[in-house]
Design brief:
Length: about 110
Amino acid sequence: MRDAKDKLIGTWKIVSAVMEDVETKEQKLVWGKHPNGYIILTPSGRWIVVQTAEGRKVPETDTDRTAAFRSMLAYSGRYHIEGDKIIIKVDIAWDESWNGTEQVRFYRI
């Protein structure tokens, strides 16, 4: 897996993000067709991501700020690669319920 990790190390701009229901296989573009964000994979095995939905407005009220918070994510953790999967053991996140979880992401180059 060293070759796969070497190919992935760096800073990547997010160009699409698809959420898939594991049971039904239904896919949704929950961040829109053109999400914003970056993923950083370090040589030491750290994954860092900040992602926002397309079309966000500058928040002016508490309601706007709540909507802005719900249209973004940010988390980090140690990662390892298994085939076409990256598995991240989250140790810090914008949503506390993610801490300690494993997040699985699929990729292709």
